[in-house]
């Protein structure tokens, strides 16, 4: 369906036309690159690398961080990332009730230790980590030193660590013939029993489906394997939104999660920093379907990542983040960006991004609106409105850790939609991605996470457990109506 664009200005129409032309040019370029022989692509890659090294101000010597960053950059998957620091992982598959196969990763033991009976209980406290939009589980472990990687720290602290992945796929993955190809995308959850990834029906999912199926089914699988009664949930960005939604609509799920720690929490973001994009998408979120179709969004990202010299690709990502979100990422080192951005992108459905713009447009954490009204239609008090996620009904303790320079977090609005027991702590000078990859996360973020995990785990322990955790430090508690 083509939306009516009655509220768009001439400037917006110009941006719309430019966007279509750019996407057409990008598609043509992708076809040309696929057809080019390997020696030609390698020649362009070497020229771009030589040019970058000539004009770059980066130090020419190989620092320890650069050596580690190169290993992270070239790691092909989650297992290789873990093996860099001596960790052995397990892979699990979850079948959701609507037929999707999700990949789970597990770190059951400390560095250098190998569990003798894979897939069984360890008797340790269980923690489940979930990534954000356009990401996969690799984002948690692609850091240039182990002490800044939350899963590794938790494993050393004696936790049974699990990492989830959203449903998504390998649709239209770019596969150039050159030797520098890195095929990314979410390699871990790309199957459905009912539809192949080339079908639009495969991609017909939004955050509603993550909340109804992916999160509760993943948690149930983890508890079944570990034989634990409860687990702790740590989400990042959209991984927090999925938990807010899941806990609000599944009362029984609250009995299985002893604490929900939300890093860079996302619920009802105010919008984007790029005014043209923000205005266009809020005026008519379904414009995204015109730009990208009804399957995967930004599927050409793997092409750019494969043909560009990594520092150039990282620079492109940096500029895009500044334009869209006003994130300058000063807390993330250059070497960390180059290493981590190689693992950043993962396929997601266009529908899930449309859902976010519906939330931004209505300033409400709501379910997906299938009955999208034309932007020229004025709604009345009695008009249809999509249901909101009843987040104030969440019983599980909630801890919010957010950057005070994160443009996607409006903490007062968020607290007003959450229960009174919510705890919030601001991280000074932190933006969104800083909470994952910042140079001081081992000092500012990880200790807060570990303390919250211990505090709530001990508070829910049996009477004969030894409780030696200090009271949780509270910056803000939701007392708003």
Give an overview of the whole structure.
There is one protein chain. This protein has 481 residues and is an alpha/beta fold. It has one domain (38-51, 64-171, 181-369, 387-462): 3-Layer(aba) Sandwich (Rossmann fold), CATH 3.40.50.1820. The protein has 17 helices and ten strands. Strands 1, 2, 3, 4, 5, 6, 7, 8, 9 and 10 form a ten-stranded mixed beta sheet that branches. Strand 6 (231-236), helix 7 and strand 7 form a beta-alpha-beta unit. The protein is globular, with a radius of gyration of 22 Å. Mean pLDDT is 82; it is low at 1-5, 169-186, 374-380, 462-469 and 476-481. This is Partial AB-hydrolase lipase domain-containing protein. It comes from Psilocybe cyanescens. It holds the Pfam family Abhydro_lipase. Belongs to the AB hydrolase superfamily. Lipase family. GO terms for molecular function: hydrolase activity.
Largest sheet: 10 strands, mixed
Q: How would you sum up the global shape?
A: globular
Beta-strand residue percentage: 5-15%
The radius of gyration over CA amounts to: 22 Å
Organism: Psilocybe cyanescens
Family: Belongs to the AB hydrolase superfamily. Lipase family.
Domain Partial AB-hydrolase lipase: 80-142
GO molecular function: hydrolase activity
